[in-house]
Specification:
By secondary structure, the chain is of the alpha/beta class. The chain has one domain: NAD(P)-binding Rossmann-like Domain (Rossmann fold), CATH 3.40.50.720. 38% of the residues lie in helices and 21% in strands. The strands form three sheets. Strands 2-1-3-4-5-9 form a six-stranded parallel sheet, with helices on both faces. Strand 4 (80-86), helix 3 and strand 5 (134-139) form a beta-alpha-beta unit. The protein starts with a strand and ends with a helix.
Length: 273
Amino acid sequence: MTKKFTIFGQGFVGQNLSIFLKKRKYNFFFPKKGRFKFKKNLNNIVFCIGNQNWLQNPNLTYQTNLSIMAKVLFNNKFESFTLISSTRLYFANKKDGTAENNFIKINTNESKFLYNSLKISAENLCLCLKNKKIKVVRISNLFANNFTNQAYILPTIIRDSIIKNKITLELSNNSTKDFIHVDDAFNVLIKIIFSGKYRMYNIASGKNVYIGDILKRIKKITNCKIIRKKNYRTIKEPKINIGRIKKEFNFKTKYNLISYINELLDSQKKLIK
């Protein structure tokens, strides 16, 4: 299998993946936005186009998470195709398991499950095809030095602590999430693409971090204010099972989020300047 990549998606995942591949001297290219069909072999496709603003724009969420993926999958030649999905799909599972072969709980009566429903459909579409080179990878919350306008919780509080000198959020200190550095995630992603024995994998740190610990570290460095909204909530995401990548690839994380926060703050300051 050639070590050439085609990356569909130029957001946070796509940009960081390109940086990772460039450092390791792999060839890659980004197709022009809006172009999804090619005559040439696209070698190793990584599809990471997505959108989570389902309440604001359900149509865009449908297009980016399912419709466009199908166009790329069915209209191109490739050596491998990897769909980047999300461990967010386990949100409602709680104690019902977060291993790759566990059933995913979805409540179609609640609008907040639209994103999950579309991702599940995209995954199922990939896996129903009898091609072992088509794989699905569910990745946890990523962090890296180049947060810009991402609206997720970590980049938002990093950005606000510097720009506004205050953090306003609706989550309690006891809320927990799994965070993994892009290098840790992409190191094992490449191994999965080239030699993974299974067609679905979780990529996560396997350890949840308390939001309160993140805030405490940021406040110690920036001395920013922490403000809670009136109706703040406690959301504890289920611990992600990473037994598969640990057993097959001897996976271990190199980066710890709490220890890395200083670097995140420094890189954000440079971006603001």
